[in-house]
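comment on this one:
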Amino acid sequence: MLPHRDRSALRKIEEELAASDPVFAAKLSEGGPPTQSRRWQAILVGAEVTALLMLVFGLMAGETGWFLWGLVAVPPLVWAHRSLLRRGRERTADDQP
């Protein structure tokens, strides 16, 4: 979360932008990125489930390759998912007064 001084400065810049170029300001405030963010979350969840299935299948079937690829894939996927969620929370926290 940004300090109050920074938030007020950003709000002032936003007001000046809306006054000088209302069409551009409207396009920025449409809300496109959250939809894209939800799409990435769905893709990451699908990839995480796939990696977990690879782990389980590798363990149950004795396939070392499947298990190792699942083991290698899970940590970066979880990290990416958590980073995306954290970025979304920061974005919503900055939007609140």
Remarks:
- The chain has a mean pLDDT of 83.
- Residues 31-97 form one domain.
